[in-house]
Amino acid sequence: MRDSPLSATPYEVFGVPPTASTDELRRAYRRVLRETHPDTGGSAAEFHTAQWAWERIGTPEARAAYDRGATRSEPAHEAWAAPSARKPRDSRPLARSHGHPGGWRRERYLSLIREWAGRGVALDDPYDSAFVRSAPRDIRHVLADALAEEATARLLSELGIAFTIWHDVATDAAGGGPAQKLDHIVLGPSGLFAMLSEDWGAPVTLRKGEIIGEGIGAGERPLHALSLRARSIARAARVRFTALVIVVPDDQTEESLTVVGRARGVPTLLVQRSRLQDLARTGLVNVPLMGGNELFDVRTRLSAAIRFV
């Protein structure tokens, strides 16, 4: 996710300082291309990231424009600002939505960034990109996950009125608490889905039925955590989920949709964000669609059981 608070700047992609000469930058670009090219055993995601970075600073004109923009922080600020500061979207029939996507993590980020900045320090703009990038990674990760939740919510809202969506749902997993929430629960004719929206700032892979990667901390088990949270809701509402889904930015996994395995008989999926609407609309192969009476019953049970963080 190249506009993520966790993403590297073009200079960081090439491993050079912003003061590097044109020749130094060109040599670094060629080196990174050789190291990341898929034909020589490199990563396709990293190769495309290098190309993206070169488009931003590869010519004097592009580099000057990027440096001016980076100084003003306008592009990143527009993407990271709170939703109320953005331009309204066009009006279309939307899914029924409940809760505040990304709301808890936004509040958590603001609390952490103010504490990190220090007592008595005037914080004019907590979303200024230069300021955000100077913060510790764990604080930037909180903001990145809030943005990921909001991006997923925007896509889900476009599914239409046949769908009902709950965001920031509290669970009793691992003793409860806001950090144990489900980011999204999606109900529609294709089934009932429990979702987490994640941005780890780096590509992820699979090992022994779990998601691993450079941005995932030691001991973290994202799919296991999702399973525990979904099980809490399933018990409380007396429903069964069709699938458990972790949604990531497209550049963090090579496959658009991967069936990782099963958790107590429920399929677990790793899905690129651009594939999410298709999954929600079509569902899983060999899983029958929900009829009207079943949809109404499941929606009623969930509405009675769900609490928000």
- Characterize the biggest β-sheet: 7 strands, mixed
Q: Tally of extended strands?
A: 9
Poorly predicted parts: 71-75
How far apart lie the N and C ends? Answer: 26 Å
**How do the strands line up in the largest sheet?**
1-2-3-4-7-9-8
Overall mean pLDDT stands at 90
* Helix content bin: 40-55%
What percentage of amino acids are in beta strands?
15-25%
Secondary structure category = alpha/beta
| Helix segment tally | 11
Secondary-structure element string: HHHHHEHHHEEEEEHEEEHH
What is the CA-based Rg, rounded? 21 Å
- Domains counted in the coordinates: how many? 2
The coarse overall form would be globular
Question: Characteristics of this structure?
Answer:
Helix Hairpins; 309 residues; alpha/beta; 9 strands; 43% helix; 2 domains
Break the fold down into its secondary structure elements and pairings.
Elements: H1 10-14, H2 22-36, H3 44-57, H4 60-72, H5 74-80, E1 96-98, H6 103-117, H7 129-133, H8 137-157, E2 164-169, E3 182-188, E4 191-197, E5 204-207, E6 210-213, H9 222-237, E7 243-248, E8 257-263, E9 266-272, H10 276-282, H11 292-305
Parallel strand pairs: 1-2, 4-7, 7-9
Antiparallel strand pairs: 2-3, 3-4, 5-6, 8-9
In short:
The chain is an alpha/beta fold and 309 residues long. It is built from eleven helices and nine strands. The chain folds into two domains: 63 residues, Orthogonal Bundle (Helix Hairpins), CATH 1.10.287; 227 residues, no CATH class.
